[in-house]
Amino acid sequence: MNIENTLNNAVKILNKSKIKNSILDSEILLSQAINRDRKYIFLNSKENLKQKYSKNFNNLIARRRKGEPIAYLINKKEFWKQSFYVDQNVLIPRPDTELIIEQVLKLFLKNSKLQILDIGTGSGCILLSLLKEMPNCYGIGIDILKKSINISNFNAKMLQLTNKVKFYQSDVDNFKIGKYDLIVSNPPYIEELSLKYLENDVVYFEPKLALNG
User: Fold this and answer.
1) CA distance linking residue 11 with residue 158, whole number of Å
2) pLDDT band for position 71 (50/70/90)?
3) Which residues form the Release factor glutamine methyltransferase N-terminal domain (predicted)?
4) Is the pLDDT of residue 179 over 70?
5) What dihedral angle (degrees, nearest 10) is formed by the CA atoms of 56, 159, 150, 118?
6) Confidence of residue 209 (pLDDT cuts 50, 70, 90)
7) Second label for 3, Cα 20 to 30 Å away, from 125, 134, 135, 205?
8) Contacts (Cβ under 8 Å, ≥6 apart) of 210
9) Is-contact 169 142, C-beta < 8 A?
10) What is the rounded distance in angstroms from the CA atom of residue 213 to the CA atom of residue 205?
11) Range of lowest pLDDT (84-98, 156-170, 175-189)
């Protein structure tokens, strides 16, 4: 089956499951499956897909129709000006969290020399974004989950910031905080009773600990 027909079938499947943005999601997932950008898909719509690519794509569509977020399916999420690795061990970075970056940049000059602490760092997106914007700063991120620390370390390596940041597995009560010029955090804030009102892709796939602690 060629790319165009494969995409059309996928869109129908996602529409039946009432998945929003079914066309865009299908294009993104096909790009992931064949390891090409979306431009390639548009320019080669009549190209027949190899069986291994079709299998990979069908698996991704099957997961998406169940509500699994795109960011977890492609292990990537854009935040601020960078791309971060994410999986189900960390909360998916939200656009509204970028307000933290905006406020910090309003309060401090970009050439400021700050020691920054990030509590509940998750993917490290907040702290690492700040360190990219403020090259004279250094940071420490803490998270209660070891798997989150592994991911934040991976993102620091991708962004070439390992010489400016350290991540530690700890909760805030047992961490010797010390002195910092700036403390940032996007802590769990959703009440248990409110979880049922969230979108299914949030409730069933994102880490509950990151949502309501």
Assistant:
1) 33
2) very high
3) 7-74
4) yes
5) -130
6) low
7) 205
8) 90, 91, 120, 122, 188
9) yes
10) 15
11) 175-189
> In DSSP terms, which residues pair with 97 in a beta bridge?
none
Write phi, then psi, for 2 (nearest 5 degrees). -85, 175
User: CA 43 to CA 86: how far, in whole Å?
Assistant: 29
Domains in the chain, CATH or no CATH each: 3-66 (1.10.8), 79-212 (3.40.50.150)
Distance CA 152, CA 90 (A): 9
The pLDDT score that the predictor gives to residue 195 is: 43
Q: What CA–CA distance (Å, rounded) separates 7 from 3? A: 6
Residue 69 Cα distances to 55, 61, 113, 178, 204, angstroms: 19, 11, 37, 37, 10
The pair of three-digit structure tokens given for residue 99, joined into one six-digit string: 């307000």
Q: Could you tell me whether strands 82-84 and 77-79 are parallel, antiparallel, or unpaired per DSSP bridges? A: antiparallel
132 with 82: CB under 8 angstroms? Answer: yes
pTM of the shown model:
0.85
Q: Nearest Cα to 162, choosing from 125, 203, 131, 117?
A: 131
Q: What is the DSSP string of 35-67?
A: T--HHHHHHTTTPBPPHHHHHHHHHHHHHHHTT
Block residue for tokens 């066309």: 23
Tokens matching residue 171: 């909760």
